[in-house]
Amino acid sequence: MECEMGVCVGESDGLTFWLARPQDYDEVMAISKGIYGGTDYLPHRYHSWMTEPNRVTIIARRDGKLVALESGLVVDGGTTEVVTGLRVCPSERGRGLAGVIQRVTDRYIKQVYPSVNIKRLTRSDDPGPEKLFTVLARRAVLSLQGKAETFDSFVLGLKAKLANMEKSGEVTATSHELVVLKDSHHLKALLLDPDLSSRLQLPGGAIIQDWLPLKPMESNLEVLRRSNLSWLADISNDKPTFMSCCTPPYPVPFNGGSLRLNIDMYGEVLFLAIKAMIIHLEQVREQIYGGVVVHIYIPHSLWEGMKKFCEGDEGVKQYMDFWEQLFLERELS
């Protein structure tokens, strides 16, 4: 049903559900204050969601007031719904609204995309067995923050530490070399290699990029391309044992306004992970200003080594203790 408030997709328990519109932005932001400790991506991405192919974003209203939002992106060749962006107005929390809008969104997506039979999501807390989700993978997250002008000395310090660690034999410098992947055809060939998942031990068999899990298949390459990522790979041979990608910096509300970037790493060689972090930070140096938040998503086996390596700088510091990214899945009936 379409009216002056947009397209209504359902009603339940005194709520009406609508396809989100660009003009709903201010109301969505009003219920999003404090989300993710101020590092919320939605203020930056909401408008692009409105036109993103294969994405459905639904809002809930009670007595005309926007009280919740949920979004789903259909990926993996039309078989998987990845849900993102769930938020509920503070006054409505604890009343089951999150579950209601999720069911409405799932039902609507199934109507529009009948081939969807899997629901996937990533989150930072375990929903527990009663939620009927299977945990496919867990990754550790290392979070850093500092002023942009302090990242120059931070990176120089990292380089010096790495050289000293190599010299002392504290880490083993492999013969593998990381290179920036600029050729889209080369990147495509690497990502579609049938052995990629097992070789890089991809979490749950997926490329999780900035919280978005995607199977390494051709239909998902356009989703990755839209993210404008910078990619690194160990290509000392045609079968990389390490890859990483980094988002461009984007604005978040943290500390009154900061930039955030996310670095996702695949592979378990500490030396290459350290080198990749250095290269990614060098790549964005001319793009950052003000406060900067960096989230680095890595296998658990690398977290302690990466944390210790980053310690000791006065300007760039770890600002969250150990935390995890969980990758969850369940069937959609």
From TrEMBL:
- Every copy of the N-acetyltransferase domain together lies at 15-164
Q: One matching Pfam family, short form?
A: Hisat_C
**Molecular function (GO) terms listed?**
acyltransferase activity, transferring groups other than amino-acyl groups
Q: Where is the signal peptide?
A: none
| PANTHER family linked to this entry | LOC100145250 PROTEIN, N-ACETYLTRANSFERASE 16,-LIKE
- Alphabetical list of InterPro entries matching this protein: Acyl_CoA_acyltransferase (IPR016181), GNAT_dom (IPR000182), Hisat_C (IPR056483)
Any idea what this protein is called? N-acetyltransferase domain-containing protein
Entry superkingdom = Eukaryota
